[in-house]
Amino acid sequence: MKRTGWLVAGVVVAAGCAASGPVPRGPVAASKPVEAARPVLMRPAEIDARMRAAWKEKGIEPAERVDDAGFFRRVNLDLTGRVPAAEAVEAFLADKSADKRQKAIDALLASPDYAEHFTNYWDRVLMGRNVRKNVDHAEFRRWLHEQLEKNVGYDVWVRELVSATGLTSAPRMAEQPVNGAANWYLRYMDNPPDLAGTTSRLFLGVRIQCAQCHDHKTEKWTMSDFQGFTASFLSTRARLFYADDKDKKGLRAYDVEDLDRPRRAAKRMDIAEYKSAAPRALDGTDLLSGGSKPRTALAEWITRKDNPWFARAIVNRMWGVMLGRGFSEPVDDLRESNPPAMKDLLDTLASDFVASGYDLKHLLRLMANTEAYQLTARPRGQRGDGAAWSYYHMEQLGPDELLDSLIRATGLPREKAERQFSFLFDVDEEDDHDDEFDGTITQALWLMNGKVMQRSIQIAPGSALAQVLSKPGGDEGKIRALYMRTVSRPPTDEETTHWVTFLKGQPVRQGYEDLLWVLLNSSEFLFNH
């Protein structure tokens, strides 16, 4: 049996473990505790071998390996959501060890920035930008951050999220524990059909929303399937803990709980049709048969090891995050009529993810160490979907990545930039069902001429430019420092010559502000490449 077969079957084998002689009999009191067998997990080389086979079959020559500076900037953006500090770039480029890329990946996954970045990512995916009134966004983010900081298994925190009960916010008039995860239900409390469609799409990669109104025309999903899935949420309600209890921001605490019957609001005309449906999972599993509340039973079914969609959906999503495109696109659409590229690799990665204990850091580490991830963004031939990740797909920085990178590069105070960013760069990806961010003309003009951008390039006390200019040395050193801060690489000789010449014809202040403005508005800064 091939190794992938073992993984698919859920069988794990310890490294170096082999059948040997007879099992000794007798007392075992003095024996050492038996350690649990560690699963044999995939290595990047196995992915590399499959990618090379795919490229060879298609007659594709992969792009060159990205240089160290390009790799370091890319992996910082993907794992921590912002460009690296100039000092970190210098240290990485000076490191001559052969495994410095692996060490950098491990260090970034272990850094506090990892949890912060993916809290932003999942918050955007789950809550969107337009957070509903009364949702305690801070408590929700605090719960999410804790899951990611502790690297809780993906199956565990998804199960807790889907079935969350308890107080959504700390009541002012009583000491009660809060479950920030319950705020996700609060977001959809008035619309169980939307909650059902979103749950299926996000965690299973199955889009059933159109079956809300009619049997799907090309897929197998029917209105009965949608009604059964939605009925899983009808027994859940969120009631005010104390009607007159508000905090300083006007937030009220809600108590999310599961009842023994559909809640009263299910009599509403737009929900009543689901009340007569028996709660069922998408494969027809009866969610009432096990004795659990329907929503709890649904969460258990979603995260079961034999669920054919759960692990594949998150692997496809994370592959899209790291490699620019998922095996299936959009990343939350794994329907049969939208078959994935390299299906065998997707399935093997999904089995490996299950064997790892649904370890998201293992999954990201595996992907970041592959040859495909470490190629340049310059294709040697075929482009697009048929190129099988033979070059890196460039992505424009998302709002969070752009803001955090701008702050790191310029030393701009966060509070002065966030308000304008939230106004100009609001992209509700949860509603759009799309993780891509496309800049607008207004955003482009803001980047070129906005007040915050103008302030970020000024030589003011404490600003990045003031720090660079205060250092001894000539223009060459200062030009290099600005390049390292912004595009995370030293300038080429040609670039240095160009800027030295440019600066000689300018007042010092004007010349350096123009140089920093050009770097911050360059595609090299605004894209992950």
UniProtKB/TrEMBL annotation:
Domain DUF1553 as annotated: residue spans: 295-419
Domain of life, source organism: Bacteria
InterPro entries recorded: DUF1549, DUF1553
Domain DUF1549: 46-237
Protein name: DUF1549 and DUF1553 domain-containing protein
